[in-house]
Amino acid sequence: MANEKPEFWEAAFGEKQEMWGFEPAKSAVLTKDFFVQESIKNILIPGIGYGRNAQIFRDNGIDVTGIEISKTAIDMARKHYGTDMVIHHGSVTDMPFDQNQYDGIFCYALIHLLDSSERQKLIRDCYNQLADNGYMVFTMISKEAHTYKQGKFISQDRYEIFDGVNMFFYDRDSIKSEFNNFGLFEITEISENQPFFLIKCKREMAKI
């Protein structure tokens, strides 16, 4: 998980090591199943954190590259999962970090931490790094969450939930508005620690 406040995440990771445990999120398990079904060989995970959602893909023969803003989280990933996984140190808003084309992209609980222009750039940057017939899967918080409209109002459907963390809450209309031009084909409601959406997009093979 990452946003534009690296000092917040450094403090969070430093204060509570392995703050989300080691079990992968439900969304990661479902995405792993989907990627295995589609014979995905390599993926990019923007906001990889300390790797808890990455290892399940690696365990199933999928090569993982990550992006993470927190150096502390990267060090933790190295500690727990080894040093052979490429993790670019930086903000997802500075993508791309390489020129690789990936069969899949998995972005978990990150996009809703960005403002409108940052979200648009992240979606476009991820799509541009997909290989032909590649898939990208995003999860984002829903307006059904109890934190919706809590905290300080920032802009439409966006609130400062606690100090330093602004969150945009999605519904199906906002998902379609942001993703329809990027191969959106499935929206699923899923319960993680809060109500989420899991969405899938596909980059169709370029026509010659």
Which key features would you list for this structure?
7-stranded mixed beta sheet, single chain, 3-stranded antiparallel beta sheet, about 210 residues, alpha/beta, about 30% helix
Arithmetic mean pLDDT:
89
Structural class: alpha/beta
Radius of gyration (CA) equals: 16 Å
Report the sheet with the most strands, covering strand number, pairing sense and barrel closure: 7 strands, mixed
Terminal-residue CA separation = 38 Å
What share of the residues lie within helices? 25-40%
Please state the overall shape, judged from the principal axes of the Cα atoms: globular
Helix count, per DSSP? 6
Q: Indicate the proportion of strand residues.
A: 25-35%
Could you give the order of the helices and strands?
HHEHEHEEHEEEEHEE
Number of strands: 10
State the low-pLDDT regions, or none: 6-18
Strand order of the largest sheet: 3-2-1-4-5-10-9
Describe the protein.
With 208 residues, the chain is of the alpha/beta class. Helix content is 28%, strand content 30%. The chain contains six helices and ten strands, in the order H-H-E-H-E-H-E-E-H-E-E-E-E-H-E-E. A seven-stranded mixed beta sheet has the order 3-2-1-4-5-10-9, sandwiched between helices. Strands 6-7-8 form a three-stranded antiparallel beta sheet, with no helix packed on it. A hairpin with a 3-residue loop joins strand 9 (184-191) and strand 10. The radius of gyration is 16 Å and the shape is globular. It starts with 5 loop residues before the first helix and ends in a 6-residue tail after the last strand.
